[in-house]
Design brief:
The protein is α/β, with parallel strands linked by helices. The chain has helices spanning 6-22, 100-113, 155-175, 185-198, 211-222, 246-263, 265-270, 274-287, 309-322, 331-339, 344-358, 364-374, 381-391, 402-406, 442-449, 472-483, and strands spanning 30-33, 46-54, 64-72, 84-87, 119-122, 204-209, 227-233, 290-294, 303-307, 429-434, 455-460. The chain folds into two domains: 6-131 and 179-240 and 416-491, Rossmann fold (3-Layer(aba) Sandwich), CATH 3.40.50; 246-358, no CATH class. Helices cover 39% and strands 13% of the residues. The strands form two sheets. It has a nine-stranded mixed sheet, with helices on both faces. The protein has a two-stranded antiparallel sheet with strand order 8-9. The relative contact order is 0.14. The model is unreliable at 1-25 and 143-147 (pLDDT under 50).
């Protein structure tokens, strides 16, 4: 695909900003206050409403969709404070603003992280409470998740079921009038710009995590007006390759795991030569697959799967990516036990990921619309073949995957070339990255920062994916940055961060790693 120069991108960004300054929006948007749909604590300042926007802004006959909005008032708001919009990850993840329990979880996080900030949460299009809904069941991805296939299922049958599920979902949504080309980063970024205008907010800050960083970067590119500062946590820049670098990302994280264990006296004693044991395990599984018991106690049915060397890599990659509490800390124990033929703990870790994936907290339709619209067209089969040949023992992670299987059946359209290019901006930006993240590693944060003139990349040695919700020091970093966006944050806690505290051999693993 055609690549634009940095100068050309700068012209695009400047032009977009000027257009916003001189011309009103060419479509209607509105915000309407309403009673909260959950039981709100009367002692808390909270405001609920819905944003109405066109589904597809490029069509004059587009239907309208409504998106839920919750505004959490600051506990104590300093003079001159500006609100912060939280952009959920995914793609397709619910914003978790549907129930009283979810709202309490938001308050708990805000009190710990941003107590002096008004936090706005927008339910992203297609992810839950929006109307019309973009949800469909059964999930077309259920049988297509690599590495989590019940034993005895024929791979061809799995492919057929995945395609059948995608087609059924597509047909159901199209029959309801949905435009599947409109669920992408560009349209979501426009929703965010419309929300700022509808709420009459002159200036605000953005925080995006995981896929939310892609949306935030898209806002920076196409709707920079009103942006005071941006925080990108676990960064997915538009120019990042979708699958080509996944083998090297996992290699780097596992090498860090083995190095950190070796550097820790207790871990080194409990799990000696962990890296060597892992490679021996992988080599054995390449010759003869093992039985992996997959079970989350009292949460989902038990089942087993055949685990070969490729499945082992996928499972470790996914465990590290989801990073449930305690999962990384118990990985040395799980690898050590598996190398001796005991796969119970590894199966327990895998089950938590599997249940999280099947829990229904994301929209498969949005996943497909985003990936088919913005990613698949920009990565060729030749790119992947070359990556596989260069990647070594994890080369299969760069091969064609389930999304390549399903996209031919999903009419998502194709993004413009610019939506695959680096974002160039002078908006102050803080980029957070976890050393143990195998999907959006520090390398991608640095890649995104190349086009951001006033940016600061901070790497956290004790974190995986999603730094701010896992590392208490990150809250101090964010607070310092929001107070002075033009200065690099440097709180004292940064110097005290160390690698994960790995579980000792004598410790009893939890019965489940999935947070209930």
């Amino acid at each position: 695909m055609r690549r634009l120069t940095a100068i050309g991108l700068g012209v695009v960004v400047m032009t977009a900003a000027l257009c916003q300054l001189v011309a009103p929006a060419s479509h209607a948007q509105s915000f309407r206050d309403q009673s909260c749909w959950f039981g709100a604590d009367p002692k808390r300042k909270i405001r609920c409403g819905q944003l109405t926007v066109p589904e597809n802004r490029s069509r004059s006959d587009s239907r309208e969709i409504t998106l839920p909005v919750v505004i959490f008032g600051a506990r104590s708001e300093p003079v001159g404070a500006v609100p912060l919009l939280y952009i959920t990850g995914g793609p397709g993840n619910r914003s978790m603003i549907g129930t009283s329990k979810e709202i309490e979880a938001w308050w708990s996080w805000i009190d710990r992280t941003l107590p002096q900030t008004e936090v706005i949460v927008l339910g992203l299009r297609g992810t839950g409470r929006e109307k019309p809904s973009l949800w469909c069941r059964p999930s077309p991805l259920y049988f297509a998740w690599p590495g989590f296939t019940p034993r005895g299922m024929d791979p061809k049958v799995i492919e057929e079921r995945a395609i059948e599920g995608a087609k059924a979902c597509r047909n159901e949504l199209l029959a309801k009038g949905a435009d599947l080309t409109a669920y992408n980063s560009r349209e979501t970024a426009a929703d965010i710009a419309d929300l700022r205008r509808a709420l009459e907010i002159e200036s605000w800050n953005l925080y995006g995590t995981s896929y939310g960083t892609r949306i935030a970067l898209t806002v920076m590119r196409h709707h920079p007006l009103g942006l005071r500062a941006v925080i990108l946590d676990s960064v997915l820049p538009p120019q990042a390759p979708r699958t080509r670098k996944l083998p090297s990302y996992l290699e780097a994280v596992l090498n860090r795991l083995f190095d950190d264990c070796r550097a820790n006296e207790a871990c080194r004693k409990d799990y000696p030569e962990l890296g060597i044991k892992f490679e021996a395990l992988r080599s054995r599984l390449a010759v003869e697959a093992a039985e992996l018991p997959v079970a989350v106690v009292d949460v989902m049915p038990h089942y087993s799967m055949k685990l070969d060397d490729k499945g082992l890599a996928v499972i470790l990659q996914t465990i590290l990516y989801w990073d449930w509490p305690g999962s990384t800390e118990y990985l040395p124990m799980a690898i050590d036990q598996a190398s001796s033929g005991d796969f119970v703990l590894l199966g327990r870790l895998a089950a938590a990921v599997d249940y999280g994936f099947k829990s229904g907290d994301f929209s498969p339709a949005v996943v497909l619309s985003f990936l088919c619209h913005e990613e698949v067209a920009f990565e060729t089969e030749q790119d992947r073949k070359q990556a596989v040949g260069e990647a070594g023992r994890f080369g299969h992670l760069a091969e064609a995957d389930w999304i390549d299987l399903l996209c031919p059946h999903w009419p998502a359209g194709e993004a413009d070339d610019i939506d695959n290019e680096a974002v160039v901006s002078e908006i102050p930006t803080l980029l957070l990255a976890g050393s143990y993240d195998p999907i959006t590693p520090p390398e991608l944060a640095r890649l995104a920062a190349d086009g951001l003139a006033l940016s600061y990349v901070l790497e956290f040695r004790n974190s995986g994916h999603g730094v701010l919700v896992k590392v208490s020091c990150a809250a101090d970093v964010v607070a310092a940055f929001l107070a002075r966006p033009s200065e690099r944050p440097d709180p004292a806690c940064l110097k005290a961060i160390s690698p994960p505290d790995f579980a000792a051999r004598s410790e009893q693993p939890p019965s489940t790693f999935y947070p209930r």
